[in-house]
Amino acid sequence: MSGMQEHGERTADRAGGLEDSEPSGRLRSTAEALGGFIRRVPFSIAVAVLLVVTALVTGTFFGAASEETATTWAAGVITTVDGRQWWTVATALVIPFDPFQLVFGVLAALVLLGVAERRMGTWRTIVAFLVTGALGVAIGTVLQWTGSLAGEWWASGTAADLTLDPLAGIVGALITATAFMGRLWRRRIRVITIAFILVFVLYDGDSSNAYRLVAAIAGYLLGAVFTRDPSTLSAKRSSHRETRTLVAAVVAVTGVGPIVALVNRSELTPFAFGSYLYADEPLERAAVMANCGGDAAAAAASESCTAQLALLSAQGFGMFLLSFVPVLLLLVAAWGLRHGRRFARWLAIAVNAAILLFARTAFDVTVTTADVDDGTWTVFDFGELLVWILAVLALPIGIIVMLIVTRRHFQIRAPQGAFTRFAAIVSGAFVVLAGLYLAVGLATVGEYWPAATGWDVLLDTFKRFVPPHFLAVVDPIVLPGHDLASFLAQAVGPVFWVVFIAAAIRLMSRTGTAAKTADDARLRELLHRNGGGTLGFMATWPGNVAWFSDDGDSAVAYRVINGVAITMSDPICAAGAGGRVIREFAAFCDANSWVPVFYSVHPEYLPVFDELEWEHMSVGEETLVRTKGLELAGKPWQKVRQALNRGIKEGMTTVWTSWDELPLATVAQINAISEEWIAEKELPEMGFTLGGMEELKDPEVRLMLAVGPDGRLQAVTSWLPVSRDGAVIGWTIDFMRRADGSMNGIMEFLIASAALHMKETGAEVLSLSGAPLATKPLAPGETPPEPTVMTRLLDFLATTLEPAYGFSSLFRFKAKFNPEYETISMAYPDPLALPAIGLAIGKAYLPEVSPAEAVALVKTLTR
Q1: Is the N end or the C end of the chain the one with fewer CB atoms within 10 Å?
Q2: Cis status of the peptide bond prior to 636, with omega within 30 of 0
Q3: pLDDT over 90 for what percent of the chain?
Q4: Peptide bond before 476: cis, by omega within 30 degrees of 0?
């Protein structure tokens, strides 16, 4: 996916003695990227044109395929197997069945097939399109033929189908191409595509959907053959953000299934519940009353009357809207899941549990209203029904299990007050609407048909809030006769669910109270004025809480874990106020029975802790580069200079930007690079002082991107501002990712370019951030301090964690930039609290470790 275009000045050869300068460039616009994409997909364009031509020649451009066209060119048991027209396996892939399929086929060819061609090249795409499409159609028809001979319901019902379906080959080629993609898009495309296909298989049951499923499976295997890499068949771990995206996508895709069933009205699938309630011409109440008699007993005695009553009770615009409530709720839940909301997970679980709860009655609705039961049941039919029931249960159970297994990714809660308001609004709306309908119903009970009692009206009140395809044939089936009662019967359910959905969206949009939002703004204002040190901007990250001094002019960012209040770097205060702020914050913690721990503080604050008689120890080294007057000259800078010169020689450029300024193509590339990095680690993501993708999106954070001569992103770094007196005086690196196959030395090139950019813009300092558990090199003639129990423990931890997280390797990498070293320390009041402090800091860095991640971490540490 090309998202860049080089531009700008080149740095002169260093041998010529000219001054170093940043090799700047710019991002390619979305329109430029789209134009480049189109020029690289000739086969996809040819397929789109071919579909239009074949549609014009066969007449499907103007309407559905004629019988002559279908029997000559379409695939199916009748033509492909019985008629031995083997060419239909291929012709079915290039002729659309009707204008609707033509439009979708052309769009799919240009977009989906285009993506495949862009990834794996034209010739592989041609082979994948033909092979997977032909296998999908051929295997699908053979399965139909075999199943129809055995009397299987679906196969028998679709054996007469004749299929023209270009999407089979397109889907197969797309899945094949995922083997050539990075792990992010490989996983996304496979999960979403298979989910869509399964929804259509389960809710529609048309032959073409089964062919597409077979083609997708063939593409999955063919991709591994093309790449000669079996690892493309396996799943890799993903980030919290990506897991949320995938789970949300699956919930959303499965949620639209009932719409598919409603549109296609097929009894060939176990999920087409209630689609028959709306497909026929509306029934007239007078006609049903005439056929079934005027009393409840007569109506209940006849299965035909029960079906007519069910259809009559489900008529009306309100009931039609009510049938889409599960779909809307799942889409709302998917939106919330995408944003990590805990409420969304429970909402999705509740909807799927409701589908399970009403599965039996929903099946009765289908059997009764569709008249698919002819009264003769064989042993085979009962076995087939058992299989279908298991299939009905499998989808919602699978979704519920998925949501339970991934629950640690959905822990964002709304404030307690917001949830209380939600509960009050929803319960209040239900009481008012249900009470209104019940009161009017009881007042007009004599006008119900069949004759109703007060108990019947009460039960009917609850049914008015449940989608009709769940309870349409469940007693009591009574119809209000009064105009007002009839209006309320149609209105109360949809109005209630509109209120519920609006309240749910509002609840999941609340990320904090107004006071929390004000605190964030206040904290940033203090950061801009007082700085907070080179690591101070981390105070703004999610998970931290701001404490403000009594005079409101100072702040400390902290988080409480297991009774330990861990601060984030230095106090945010004016020069000389650090001692007072530290003492006030310690008193605040004491009042709350917390153990205060100042983490990653700089040396100027250690005398304060000595006065307080606190213990302190080194927890790492920060590496600083002074950018004023920076010259990349001399032997110490040789390795960095070589990487910079190499990058310039190979046509590399850099872009200094922010997240909001990025084109969509560049955003996609950054996401892909990050997911690739996470998948390769197979270890839990660390947090606390280590930012991730979400922290990149802060408007004050800047990105430095490395762009190859082909316009592709090769590496990305993020930089946190360091402020003083309202001005940015330096930058601290946080996020570092490089793409697979990027230039050797790309990070040296990128950081050196960032340093030159900062020099040109007047910044004073570049911080390469802290290196946890690292020790700065000794100066010539300097002797190491006497080891203590704690320093031995830290050395042990550094050695143990090195295979997993490479802290020492990262520290050695930073040494290439000839930095100044500044020790960062942890200060704490009570040595006896060290075990609790250690556990709290470990949980801060690894807040959510799954059992699989814990096993992977242990395996890495014990290699």
Answers
A1: C
A2: no
A3: 22
A4: yes
Strands 765-772 and 595-601: what pairing? unpaired
Catalogue the E-assigned strands of 364-481: none
Q: Could you tell me which of 663, 702, 749 has the C-alpha nearest to residue 4?
A: 663
Q: Map tokens 């023209």 to a residue.
A: 164
pLDDT band at 422 (very low <50, low <70, confident <90, very high): very high
- CB burial of 576-587 (b: ≥16 within 10 Å; e: otherwise) equals ebbbbbbebbbe
Contact of 573 with 808, CB cutoff 8 Å = no
Q: And the tokens for 455?
A: 């108990």
**Cβ-based neighbour number of residue 575 at 10 Å:** 9
In sequence order, which residues have a C-beta less than 8 Å from that of residue 510 and are 6 or more positions away? 414, 415, 418
Which helix (H) or strand (E) segment holds residue 770: the answer is strand 765-772
Which tokens in the block code for residue 697?
């999106």
Q: pLDDT tens, 674-693?
A: 877 776 655 556 666 677 78
Mean of all residue pLDDT scores within the chain? 79
Tell me how far apart the alpha carbons of residues 270 and 201 are, in angstroms, rounded to a whole number.
10
- Phi/psi of residue 696, nearest 5 degrees: -65, -25
Beta-bridge mates of residue 601: 825
- Secondary structure letter of residue 659 according to DSSP: G
Q: Which among 168, 82, 161 has a CA at the least distance from the CA of 132?
A: 168
Angle, helices 240-255 vs 325-338, to 10°: value is 170
The CA-atom distances, in angstroms, between 60 and each of 29, 63, 170, 306 are 38, 5, 19, 42
Nearest Cα residue to 669 out of 7, 24, 44, 27: 27
Convert the pLDDT of each residue in 518-564 to its tens digit: 778 888 899 898 888 888 888 888 788 889 988 888 899 988 888 88
Report the Cα 623 to chain-centroid distance in Å. 35
Distance CA 201, CA 196 (A): 9
Structure tokens at 785: 């301090």
Quickly tell me which residue has 């450029």 as its tokens: 653
**330-369 CB burial, b ≥16 within 10 A, e <16:** bbbbbbbbbebbbbbbebbbebbebbeebbebbbbbbbbb
Q: Which of 738, 279, 287, 299 is nearest to 478 (CA)?
A: 299
Instruction: Kindly state the helix (H) or strand (E) to which residue 821 belongs, with its residue range.
Output: strand 820-828
C-alpha 714/C-alpha 705 separation (Å) is 8
Q: How far apart (Å, rounded) are the C-alpha atoms in residues 177 and 165? A: 20
28 φ/ψ angles, rounded to the nearest 5 degrees: -75, 140
- pLDDT tens string 724-733: 888 888 999 9
Other beta carbons less than 10 A from residue 779's beta carbon: 7
Q: For 592-612, b where at least 16 C-beta lie within 10 A, e where not — what string?
A: eebbbbbbbbbeebbebbeee
Query: Taking a C-beta distance cutoff of 8 angstroms, is the pair 245, 186 a contact?
Result: no
Residue 781 identity (one-letter amino acid): G
* Structural tokens at position 416: 């307690």
What crossing angle do the helices spanning 207-227 and 167-177 adopt, rounded to 10°?
A: 30
CB-CB neighbours of 690 under 10 Å: 17
pTM above 0.70, yes or no: no
Cα-atom radius of gyration of the chain, to the nearest Å?
33
Q: Which of 848, 845, 839, 847 is nearest to 563 (CA)?
A: 839
Contact between residue 579 and residue 608 where contact means Cβ atoms under 8 Å apart = yes
Three-class DSSP category at 716: strand
For residue 154, the SS3 value is: helix
Tens of pLDDT along 310-325? 777 777 788 888 888 8
Angstrom distances, CA of residue 262 to CA of 155, 257, 318, 442:
21, 9, 16, 34
Strand arrangement, sheet containing 702-707: 545-548, 555-561, 564-567, 595-601, 820-828, 615-626, 765-772, 727-738, 713-724, 702-707, 653-657
Instruction: Write the DSSP symbol of residue 269.
Output: S
78/772 Cα distance (integer angstroms):
70
